[in-house]
Amino acid sequence: MHFSLRWKLSLAFIIMVLVTSTLMGLLLHQMVGTAFSNYIRRRSYEQAERLLPTFQSSYQENGSWSGFRLPQKNKPGKSPVLQQGLPWLLNRAPLLLLDAQNHLVWSNRRPLPKLPPRDRLKDNAFPIVVQGKRVGTLVVLLPDIRAAGSVELFFLSSFNRSLALSVIVALALALLLSVFFSQHLVRPLQTLAQAARDVTKGNLSRRVQISARDEVGDLGAAFNQMAATLEEDERLRRDLMANIAHELRTPLSVIRGSLEAFIDGVYDFTDENITSVYQETILLERLIDDLRELSLAEAGKLRLEEQQFTPEILISETANFFQAAAQAKKITLTTQVEPQLPTLKGDFQRLKQVLYNLLSNALRYTPANGHIEMTVKRLWGTQGRIAISVHDSGPGIPSQDLPHIFDRFYRGDTSRTRTTGGSGLGLAIAKEIVEAHGGRIWAESRPGEGTTFTFTLPLPQRA
Q1: In the predicted model, what is the mean pLDDT of the chain?
Q2: Can you name the residues that pair with 378 across neighbouring β-strands?
Q3: For a Cys staple, 261 with which of 266, 292, 317, 334, CB 3.0–4.6 Å?
Q4: In the 3-class helix/strand/coil scheme, how is the chain assigned residue by residue?
Q5: Could you report the per-residue pLDDT of 347-393, keeping only the tens digit for each?
Q6: Alpha-carbon gap, residue 200 to 205, rounded angstroms
């Protein structure tokens, strides 16, 4: 049989209240019974002490316990205590009179009760002393609660009835409150379940209202965050597919158009025309390689061939490679390396690829007579790291584009072509390579003040 969460919660509340009420009732019953027994004990002892003068006077008159009888309370002059009357003790509690040798000589019960063991007589025995000598002992056997008076029994029965009624009322209230609170707790979960079903049907814009500041509210916030992430991922996926189709269509269109022109005799088979088609195939191959490399990096399967090298070699080889291109554009390319830097451990060619991408972007956007500076310095902190920066004097990156420059296929200027702006994968690949080495990459820029790209690399841990 299938039970909903609401009924499970209601049943749990009812069982909890039932168990708690039962245990509390038993505990209260035990406590009241113990307290009532103590009350009877104290009352018996008090009345027994009031009887001691009667026994003492009887022994003084007769000189022994032979033929002892308690005087009647209506017989004047014999016992002031009995004149006041002690019917409760005499009628309810068994009394035993022992002589000096602890022999039973009298009891208010017939037949005579059996004398209890000596160890049980210690707390219930009251010595009878005449002229400084113990002549006997009065033993009070505590009566059963059921032998108490009508007033006491009425009190116990009233208490038990009230206790049972309290348990019944508590169960009724538990039933009502459990239905209310279970519905209050389950309603947000039902809303979440319906929202999850909507998301599975493709409605990624579905959100839930968060009104509680508890675990259920945290669950709702997590669901909204998950839905927002899925919606953003779906948007990025659609953009990625559109960008890939666009990037592939451009070189393919050029190749197809050139081939059709060759077939129709519009183009001659000259080296210049064939070279143009060949360059488009190179661009197409490079785009496919970039996509493959980015997919491997994002999947954590990018292969790194680690080796040890110094930062000076990494910077100098990269700067020498771009020196001629910088001079052709009348751009000053300088390097500044902090002395005595420790060796690095990583994929030398991959890290050169990162610097190639950063320098090629810097050369592309730095105007003539500008400057580009590469710096390397050590960062001191809890873990040793070095920071490599590439700063240019270009126009800078607008603030609205800065958070997205490492996204795939992102171009701040949509009017740029692949020839002037690249495929939009270079910085995304650079980010994945740096993070694969345990580093971090970021950009700082202000329009009109140039741009600085910085990435950090961890230093090898010394043994």
Answers
A1: 79
A2: 386
A3: 266
A4: CCCCHHHHHHHHHHHHHHHHHHHHHHHHHHHHHHHHHHHHHHHHHHHHHHHHHHHHHHHHHHCCCCCCCCCCCCCCCCCHHHHHCCHHHHHHCCEEEEECCCCEEEECCCCCCCCCCHHHCCCCEEEEEECCEEEEEEEECCCCHHHCCHHHHHHHHHHHHHHHHHHHHHHHHHHHHHHHHHHHHHHHHHHHHHHHHHHHCCCCCCCCCCCCCCHHHHHHHHHHHHHHHHHHHHHHHHHHHHHHHHHHHHHHHHHHHHHHHHHHCCCCCCHHHHHHHHHHHHHHHHHHHHHHHHHHHHCCCCCCCEEEECHHHHHHHHHHHHHHHHHHCCCEEEEEECCCCCCEEEEHHHHHHHHHHHHHHHHHHCCCCCEEEEEEEEECCCCCEEEEEEEECCCCCCCCCHHHCCCCCCCCCCCCCHHHHCCCCHHHHHHHHHHHCCCEEEEEECCCCCEEEEEEEECCCCC
A5: 998 899 899 989 999 999 899 999 999 999 998 765 688 999 999 99
A6: 11
What pLDDT does residue 383 have? 65
pLDDT range class, residue 422, cuts 50, 70, 90: low
Q: Return d(Cα 28, Cα 135) in angstroms, integer.
A: 44
Quote the tokens at residue 59: 């022994």
What is the CB neighbour count within 10 angstroms for residue 380?
Answer: 8
The neighbouring-strand residues paired with 130 are: 133
User: What pLDDT was estimated at residue 233?
Assistant: 78
Residues in a beta bridge with 345: 308
From the list 174, 223, 176, 162, the residue with the least C-alpha distance to 25 is 162
Strand ranges of the sheet holding 451-458, from the earlier edge strand across to the other edge: 332-337, 371-379, 385-392, 451-458, 440-445
Banded model confidence at residue 80, pLDDT cuts 50, 70, 90: very low
The answer to whether 424 and 409 are in contact (CB under 8 A) is: yes
Q: How far is CA 241 from the centre of its chain?
A: 38
Question: CA–CA separation, 139 vs 118, rounded Å?
Answer: 11
Structure-token pair, residue 403? 């958070």
CA distance 93 to 80: 20
